[in-house]
Amino acid sequence: MNRITVETLLQDLASRGLNGEKISEQQIKVFASKDNFVNHLHYLQTIGFEHLANINGVDYIAENEFEVVYQVYSYEHKIHIVFKVRIPREKPVILTVVTLWEQAQFYEQEVHEFYGIYFEGNKDLSHLFLENWNDLPPLRKDFNTEEFSEKLFGSKRHGGGK
Amino acid sequence: MAIGDKSISAPLTAIKSLFKKPVTVRYPDEVLEVFPEKGVSPRFRGVHTNDLAKCVGCGSCERICPVNAIYMELPEGKEDVKKEYRPVIDYGRCCFCAFCVDVCPTVSLKMSREYDFTTSATMEMRDGEEVKFVIDEFMFRPTNEREDNIGYVTGKKMKVLG
Amino acid sequence: MNFNSYSLTKIAKEDKDTTYDLFFGPNHPGMHGNFGYVLDMVGTEINSVRPNAGQLHRGFEKLMEQRGWVQNLTLVPRICVMDPDPNEVAYCMSVERIMGVEIPERAKYLRTITLEMSRLTAYLLAIGGFGGTLGHYTPTHWSTADRDLIMDMFEWLTGGRVYHIYNIPGGVRSDAPEGFFDKLLEVMDALEARLPDYDSILFENPIVHKRLKGLGYVSKEDARKTGLSGPNLRASGNAYDVRKDVPYAAYPYLDFEIITQEGGDALTRALQIRLEYEQTINLIRQAVKKIPEGDVRLNLGLLGNLKVQAGEAYEKVESSKGEFGYYIVSDGGTKPYRVSVRGPSLPAGFLWAQKHLPTMKIDDVAAWMGSLSICPPDFDK
């Protein structure tokens, strides 16, 4: 397999209907739609992008959208892809990638826990870190930490000089 | 023999460390002799010291403090103007990052090489009362008293955040 | 090894009521931090495992959205206690990538030196960990004492021993003091002279070989596919190293080869740490020799109210455990919009625990964790 560069990769992905942008010589970002992103990830996996480093969410509350970001890297081509999928903030559902990468199970559990995003096809979306949590998922931008801690610990402010 | 090959007699070499001097430094009877000056490092980030005459009460340290440990308070018997305010530091919160030293525009706030926070508790503590010795020993306005034992300081050449 | 030879397991298997849940951690002496596995046991053999995380969750990612760009630097090193500098450097590199700035050469070398010093402290802890988890406490005592030599160097350079908070967007906070590099080279000589001692008590010890050989085997393909990184990946025969593949700091100027081993079991991973330890000493020597004169920091204005233009970047750093990545999104304000941390331990701590621990004996769990360098703070962040 030939070593591909950022430019040829962007062209290749554009021919498959994926828009991308260059971040650096070894890093690009790609925007995919939620309908067929799993196919694109599968294609990337077959051309050598076999390392899924992380899955994380971003809450774009102003645009009323969540973004699920897949950090994919190729050991062969030495290129990192920030693979972004936007989903609406109401009823956030996205397909799982557990079939492609086994460790995605735990990353998806984490994203579900902190953003409330449902991963369709993931059998176990139980909480990994937070126990007995029934508040809003905490990494959403509309989760108010101050309000939460006042509710939990009382309203007395600690510290604040003599 | 390659590294990591098995050898039955090899572990017996540990016996020779029986005849070595211990590496422990028995503080406070002994002090470290690693650095050019005796004791802790010349750049040690310990308890603050503040040259009250040079301090202009700008409040930069209060704003940069990541843990809200610094409060600008008016010393007794001073006129209530901004330049008379001096920082009070809550050592229950301080994380000793020294960003306050870095931002100080007049280089009046420095850190000393003193780090001993042990103190004797008194029996006057009562339920529900603010613990007095905590306030006295862990929240105070740094003054010139540790000026002869200065640790971390940002000189003019090394000015970081300004 | 034939597990049925253990009489306790044999008795337990005959009696239906003797399976029990064992909470391995958070306060088990073999556990690396506030994390636990709930092990379903039959006698001394493990049936199934359930990771019990969350006891160390401090909400770092949420906290970072509420602090300034520079203030966050006091927070990021706390994500990995043993090896704090990769976090600082990865965070700073991400910010610098978004801002589109290049730091001065001398700062790059100083970053490299602190990164490698931090790697040494982490490897020494790992060596001590191997000893401790196998009930062989001599290397633990030795490595704690040797680690202190590097901690002293950190104290001299940065003012702090454990959390250095030395890197800052645009470079490092202060130049090295006079005489620092000479002393550092002396420390490197002292540490290198200690290596034969570690070899003879730990790496050549037949009991250690017997305990670690074949434990927790990871094949070459599996290691690549399941997201393992760092020494774990290289001990399975994959020649990948972030320092070489996506060069950062001063690594492009230094001369080193990626060390790989075939084997993929706990013993190979222990030896990998031993070999990379030697390489790290060599890298520090090279960096000290080549360090240029000059500035250590870019002037980015008042860093207290630093504003970073809108953008995003993922930057990674090779730590002693694997790839540490920081994905930062900025909306152009004085605070990050989102910081997501990729810790190296999650694939091993969750996924490989499910694969390896069943049928393993209880005595091997701590050694297995140590060999995969599972450090709970970086997934329980």
Explained architecture:
- The complex is a heterotrimer of chains A (162), B (162) and C (381).
- In chain A, 25% of the residues lie in helices and 30% in strands.
- By secondary structure, chain A is an alpha/beta fold.
- Chain A has one domain (6-153): NADH:ubiquinone oxidoreductase Nqo5 subunit (Beta Polymerase, domain 2).
- Chain A has a five-stranded mixed sheet, with helices on one face. In chain A, strands 6-7 form a two-stranded parallel ribbon.
- Chain A starts with 5 loop residues before the first helix and ends in a 9-residue tail after the last helix.
- Helix content of chain B is 10%, strand content 10%.
- Chain B is built from three helices and five strands, in the order βαββαβαβ.
- A three-stranded antiparallel sheet of chain B has the order 2-3-5. A two-stranded antiparallel ribbon of chain B has the order 1-4.
- The relative contact order of chain B is 0.21.
- Chain C is α+β, with helices and mostly antiparallel strands and 381 residues long.
- Chain C contains 13 helices and eight strands.
- In chain C, the strands form three sheets. Chain C has a three-stranded antiparallel sheet with strand order 1-2-3. Chain C has a three-stranded antiparallel sheet with strand order 6-7-8. Chain C has a two-stranded antiparallel sheet with strand order 4-5.
- Chain C is globular, with a radius of gyration of 22 Å.
- The model of chain C has no long low-confidence stretch (mean pLDDT 87).
- The B-C interface holds B 3-8, 10-11, 13-14, 17, 23, 32, 34-36, 40-45, 60, 63-67, 95-99, 102-103, 111, 151-152, 154, 158, 160-162 and C 67-68, 70-75, 138, 142, 145, 148, 152, 155-160, 163, 165, 168, 173-175, 177, 179, 183, 197, 199-201, 203-207, 209, 267, 271, 274-275, 297, 302-304.
